[in-house]
Amino acid sequence: MSAQLERTAIVTGAARGIGAATAKQLAQDGFAVAVLDLDEQACAPVVDEITAAGGQALAVGADVSDEQAVTDAVAAVAGRLGDPTVLVNNAGITRDNLLHKMSVDDWDAVTKVHLRGAFLMGRAVQKFMASTGWGRIVNISSTSALGNRGQANYSAAKAGLQGFTKTLALELGRFGVTANAIAPGFIETDMTAATAARLGMEFEDFIDAVAGQIPVQRTGRPDDIAHAVSYLVSERAGFVSGQVLYVAGGPHA
Ligand code: NAI
């Protein structure tokens, strides 16, 4: 077995959407994958799919913003799948509102999951990466990091993740660890379906309207992001670190 096949990846927010696609892709790439989400039961279908395809996966229930839950989850992954050397910080939520209507709870909830969550997960796994002398961290940011009406909380969190990523690249590079961010544009998931519902639009109509604004004339799919993660965690991406890759069907940043 190659060293690559012995590596263990954790994907947060992996019960559905971009996280689920990423977990399945990394399993195909030969990683044992911890499918982590708030509810362990909700991770079961993704784990079953990976296992049925001959891969190795573990369902892990944890809130990434809860320090003790993160400590316990990472210990469980290390014990049952092996030392985690790949981390994809993908868990996320939105609580959109214009600034004058945004509550402190809306602000705290969003920054807690994206920023505190990525910090806690990153801090918990870095020791396994440092001791292995190899690691890959991919943080899922967003084109909203560049500013998006109604998303003061989310855009601040996603821009913050980019700064966090660059600092991890600086601190962990000497241990063979790269850290990069992917900033997706519009991806068809439950998150964007909820946005359509909030705007009172059918999801298909919303997709058509958005696609017209995107240079490649289509919206993104979870696999578009999973493929980019697959590249960034690969051996051949070892000289790419501290970068933000916009995967949005056109130029951004
Ligand atoms: P989604 O809503 O379909 O999935 C997010 C997952 O994260 C859910 O399974 C949810 O249970 C989990 N989660 C939420 N809070 C958590 C917590 N505290 N601890 C553990 N898990 C938690 O969302 P989607 O669209 O798949 O988004 C994934 C990531 O990509 C998010 O960070 C999102 O902000 C980001 N993104 C999504 C875009 C899109 O157009 N869908 C565009 C740009 C970024």
Please summarize what this structure is:
This protein is of the alpha/beta class. The chain has helices at 17-28, 40-52, 67-80, 104-132, 152-172, 190-198, 203-211, 222-232, and strands at residues 8-12, 32-37, 57-61, 84-89, 135-140, 177-184, 244-247.
What does this structure look like?
The protein is about 45% helix and about 15% strand. It is of the alpha/beta class and about 250 residues long. It has one domain: NAD(P)-binding Rossmann-like Domain (Rossmann fold), CATH 3.40.50.720. The chain has a 7-stranded parallel β-sheet with strand order 3-2-1-4-5-6-7, with helices on both faces. Strand 5 (about 135-140), helix 5 (about 150-170) and strand 6 form a beta-alpha-beta unit. The relative contact order is 0.14. Mean pLDDT is about 95; it is low at about 1-5. The structure holds 1,4-dihydronicotinamide adenine dinucleotide (NAI).
> What's the CATH H-level homologous superfamily?
NAD(P)-binding Rossmann-like Domain
Instruction: Kindly report the spatial arrangement of strands forming the biggest sheet.
Output: 3-2-1-4-5-6-7
The CATH class assignment is Alpha Beta
**How many separate structural domains?**
1
